[in-house]
Specification:
The chain is built from eleven helices and eleven strands. By secondary structure, it is an alpha/beta fold.
Amino acid sequence: MEERITSKENPTVKLYRKLSKNRKDRRENGMFVAEGLRICTDAVNHGFVNVLMVTETAENKYPEFVDYFDGNILRISDAVGELLSDTGTTQGVFAICKIPENPSLDSFSDKSGKYLVLNGLQDPVNIGTIIRTADAVGMDGVIMCSCCDLYNPKVIRGTMGSVFRVKTAICGYETAVEHFKSIGVITYAAVIDTDAVSLTECDFSGGSAVVIGNEGNGLTDADAMMCDKKLTIKMHGNIDSLNAAMAAGIIIWEMKR
């Protein structure tokens, strides 16, 4: 490994900071950042990593990790690690990763597949949690329409590495819904509506794609009407809505049950 980097003016350090803060820079460079031992290991194992960086503390704490990737690691000081970190207590492991090519909708064409469409979600923590849950239950893919950046560091951290395993595409909402309709996959709008079919009464035996709307406003009437059917999670007591990630988790578990 090379001499330890101690300056915040180092070009790689400056690039990491730009990528961590700005969606425009991520898109222009075709790169994003990841932080943490587990996520960076997953990123390496799935072929996403361009540059790995470890602090002196991490080098001593995770010797097996450092030995395994020795030739491809840049050593940085603990102070530089604190500068790069997006968490309260950093593990001192950082990666600059390449953004993969956006999957074609043709790769979402299993007529018996189970898919999730996220429409207008803006909370990166919600999106990260949803992708992680989709990975856990074995969903066939996630499509993001007008959402916050998939490669926001908070999304990446929230997925806990699932972003490298779950097929995720970005496209327009109408394009996504029409694609599923064209291949015979039933589309469902998740709504708060007493006239909608209860989630537990939905038949997910065939191909299904459920649309989850914006955290604060849900789906517009027009977007909901584009789907074949509407579903709702029946609730008791005084609760009239759920967090988007929680609702998505309940729905996709039911889809795969």
